[in-house]
Amino acid sequence: MLWLILTIIAYALLALVSIGDKYLLSGPLPDAATYAFYVGMLGALVIVLTPFFGWPVPMAAELWLALASGAVLIWAMLIAYNGLRRYEVSRLIPAIGSLVPIFTAVLGYILIAPVYYSPVDIAAFAVLVLGTLTLTTNKLHHIFSRGLGIAAAVSFLFALSFVLSKMVYEAGPFWSGFLWIRLGGGAAALLIAVFSSGLRTRIFSGAIFHPHPNKREKRTAALFVGNQVLGGSAVVLQSIAVYLVPLVYLAFINALQGVQYVFLFLFAHVLAAHFPDALPHEYLGQKSAVSRVWGIALVCIGLIILALGKR
After folding, report:
1. 223-245 tens-digit pLDDT
2. Any idea of the CA torsion for 114, 115, 119, 120, to the nearest 10 degrees?
3. Is the dihedral of CA 298, 301, 305, 310 positive or negative?
4. What is the rounded distance in angstroms from the CA atom of residue 141 to the CA atom of residue 212?
5. Beta-carbon count within 10 A of 308 CB
6. Residue 36 CA to chain centroid, in angstroms?
């Protein structure tokens, strides 16, 4: 069950990252392409660890799968960041999260191997997904009318990257797969810059890391770096969980994303109490309080069913 513990910790960190992403993309850094570029390039900095862990080169098939997994992840982030600028984070992210486990289960069945779930597994999976959906009840029709295309596209790409990464981890050691997946993300970020003259201009003008930053730019850069450190830690934990999880439970890592939204709402309310002007009012609404309580309850029930089923 170590994979389950690591997944929960990773989602707690990602909840904080989601709040930071929303703040940066809503004001200090309202440009999704620039944000995705820096995320991809910072992920590729894992290369500095090669003197300690080596420079493994997998077989050609695994190498291309790893590069593809990292590249697809960056493209998914690019679309997701554009979506975050248009829709509420506490609505769009759960909408994406409710679709990702379904796409993961289908793609895993097609690309890796057929897996068969026990009745307990099916019940846990269904309750976890239902809990995630319930957490989006307030204004749900707005997201699924205006944001369905974005949610579906991002969910499919995230799931595809997820399944490809599992294929890589199944074929070789963790470090080899993790290294080349991150480098694939860095390569995708460079391609975005190559085909976007506007992005190149913003990069060289110092969209985040300005050569002569003022106080506000220093604060933005610090928040961005801190957010990426949290996100990188979450990615490492989640990647280890993907490496360890039995294939039959692969989609459960995505289904457990409801845990992230539980932490998201909790952290947002705590932060809003101390920094009321730093967060959107979407976090503070009371109309959705009942649905969120039910959503949290369902996520907890799903975790209990999953844990009891593993005993």
Report:
1. 777 888 888 899 899 999 999 99
2. -160
3. positive
4. 45
5. 10
6. 13
Instruction: Please give the single-letter amino acid code of residue 60.
Output: A
Which stretch of DSSP H or E encloses residue 142? helix 140-146
Domain total for the chain? Answer: 1
Q: Which of 145-159, 175-189, 274-288 has the lowest mean pLDDT?
A: 274-288
Q: What is the DSSP letter of 46?
A: G
| Owner of token pair 């077989």 | 59
Residue 300 has pLDDT above 60, yes or no: yes
Tokens matching residue 74: 């960056």
User: Which residue range is the domain that position 150 belongs to?
Assistant: 2-310
Q: What angle do CA 236, 237, 242 make, to 5 degrees?
A: 95
Among 298, 293, 304, 242, residue whose Cα is nearest residue 10:
242
**DSSP assignment, residue 286?**
S
Burial of 114 (0-12, 13-18, 19+ CB in 10 A): exposed
Amino acid type, 40: G
Kindly provide the residue ranges of all beta strands, DSSP E only, lying in 180-294, ordered along the sequence.
Answer: none
Round to whole Å and give the CA distance between 269 and 35. Answer: 25
What are the structure tokens assigned to 93, written together?
């992210």
CA distances from 98 to 41, 92, 114, 152, 183 (A): 28, 10, 22, 10, 28
Provide the residue type at 111 as one letter.
L
CA distance 118 to 259: 22
Counting Cβ atoms within 10 Å, is residue 127 exposed (0-12), middle (13-18) or buried (19+)?
Answer: buried
Residue 241 tokens read as: 């969980």
In the chain, what is the greatest distance between 2 CA atoms, to the nearest angstrom? 60
Alpha-carbon span 71 to 52, nearest angstrom: 25
